[in-house]
Amino acid sequence: MVWSRPHARDLRRGRAGMRPLAAIGAILLGAAAGGCNILAPFLRSAELKGSHTVEAKYKGLAGKSFAVVVAADRMIQADYPDLVGQLTVTIAEHLKEKVGASGWVPPESVLNFQYQNPRWIAMTTDQLAKELGVERLVFVDVHEFRLHEPGNQYLWKGLASASIGVVEADGPGAENFAFQEHTVVSFPTKEKALGPAQMSQSDVQKVLALHLIDRASWLFYKHDEANIIDY
């Protein structure tokens, strides 16, 4: 085989053709060395729009009978007379579908018991669990529920807070909560002024209550959450 020496012009042409490839390689190496700063905005956007799976914080409702009881002071009930019923029914139905319980007291029966026994609030939580005949009592104590800041009825700025606890009536410490969590939610959550002209009071109340229901219910079953929750 005979090897021929390349002409100098061919060598120059070859080196010139390699320059664009070298430039592209340098850009890619620079992106890697800089922590992929070029891709960071796109990755961050995907993270914000995505979701992730969250495990239950309390799994002790599985295989047990339960009831959901909601308490709120008289001022809250006077301002929002349907709130206790809405929370009781919706939270109980969410848990019935998700936690794998052996049985439950229908929320209508719980509300009827509260109505017929106005002094139920003076019972201890373990006594209440025994009265309802359940192994687990999910007790939601609403501390605050308002749709605007005090003194400003022209803009909606809702806030709700509650403690969610579980009494294990079949356990040795039935007089105490086996699990307890505090949660706070708000609505509207964007930096945007909303008033009665843009959204009705009933709609604001409904959305704020649904936010509280989400936070209370999610404690008890595996679920998907958005990576950024704005409430």
Please give the order of strands in the largest beta sheet. Answer: 3-2-4-5-6
* Largest beta-sheet details: 5 strands, mixed
User: What is the count of β-strands?
Assistant: 7
> What is the straight-line distance between the termini?
78 Å
Q: Extract low-pLDDT stretches.
A: 1-6, 8-18, 21-29
State Rg: 29 Å
Global structural class:
alpha/beta
Mean pLDDT across residues: 84
Order of H and E elements: HHEEHHEHHEEEHE
Coarse morphology: globular
What is the helix content? 40-55%
Estimate the strand proportion. Answer: 15-25%
Number of helix segments? 7
Write the layout of secondary structure elements.
Blueprint: H1 8-33, H2 40-49, E1 51-54, E2 65-72, H3 74-79, H4 83-98, E3 103-104, H5 107-116, H6 125-132, E4 136-146, E5 158-168, E6 179-187, H7 201-218, E7 223-226
Parallel strand pairs: 2-3, 2-4
Antiparallel strand pairs: 1-7, 4-5, 5-6
Helix pairs in contact: 4-5, 4-7
Description:
- There is one protein chain.
- The protein is an alpha/beta fold.
- The protein has 7 helices and 7 strands.
- The chain has helices at residues 8-33, 40-49, 74-79, 83-98, 107-116, 125-132, 201-218, and strands at residues 51-54, 65-72, 103-104, 136-146, 158-168, 179-187, 223-226.
- The strands form 2 sheets. The protein has a 5-stranded mixed β-sheet, with helices on both faces. A two-stranded antiparallel ribbon has the order 1-7.
- Residues 1-6, 8-18 and 21-29 have low confidence and may be disordered.
